[in-house]
Amino acid sequence: MHTKACIFDLDGVLVDTAKYHFLAWKRLADELGVNFTETDNERLKGVSRMASLEIILELGNRHLPVIEREKLASVKNRWYVEYISKMTPEEILPGVLDFINELKANKIKIALGSASKNTPLILERVGMKKLFEAVADGNVVHNAKPDPEVFLKAAEMVGTEPSECVVFEDAVAGVEAALRAGMICVGIGDQNVLSDSHLVVKGLDEMNIEKILVLEKRLGYE
Ligand code: G6P
Ligand code: MG
């Protein structure tokens, strides 16, 4: 098998935290008097905290100094942390644990690549911490997706060449980051949205080793 490591995005791939991000951003938008919908929330997927806030301010045509923006971002994060502090292992998305265990049984390294600074808390709450050999998250990475830094860092941490890594991503910015890192990318979600990835599935419950082997073959890796 050509693949040596699999790198997973967190939000929207392993757990559905997008709903908590939405609730916290919505509360902030309401306080600011900015109209913010679930459709707008799609634009925040995979995007860093400050960049997310900037999108919301732009929706309301609001301009605020950096110091004010930093205060608002930390208020949003406080509310977000209240939600995720109550997460349980039942919130791990379908198929995630079976697929990761199948990979491990085949000696594939497992790493995490996420922009979120709250990654350690989420992994702790859902009981997934021990599954990862490496965690590259918003606390160790400086350039947000679509910059490839987060995935290159994860590959380095598990000692694997980028070309031997497969990334699982639900956000357009994340797919671009994986491709820029020179990795194989499996999109999780809608084919029309994630069409740049090498393969798209609706969720990890649709993934198995066999599909990786077929993909490797199609891409000319043996
Ligand atoms: C992930 C999510 C984004 C979130 C970002 C930063 O990429 O998809 O919606 O804004 O992480 O998360 P944080 O927990 O650090 O605010
Ligand atoms: Mg994501």
Description:
This protein is of the alpha/beta class. Helix content is 43%, strand content 11%. The protein has 9 helices and 6 strands. It has helices spanning 18-32, 38-42, 49-59, 66-84, 96-105, 119-126, 149-157, 172-180, 209-218; strands spanning 5-8, 109-113, 134-136, 165-169, 184-188, 199-201. Strands 3-2-1-4-5-6 form a 6-stranded parallel beta sheet. Strand 4, helix 8 (172-180) and strand 5 form a beta-alpha-beta unit. Helix 1 (18-32) crosses helix 4 and helix 3 crosses helix 4 (66-84). The longest helix has 19 residues, at 66-84. It is globular. The model has no long low-confidence stretch (mean pLDDT 95). Bound molecules: 6-O-phosphono-alpha-D-glucopyranose and magnesium ion. 6-O-phosphono-alpha-D-glucopyranose binds next to helix 3.
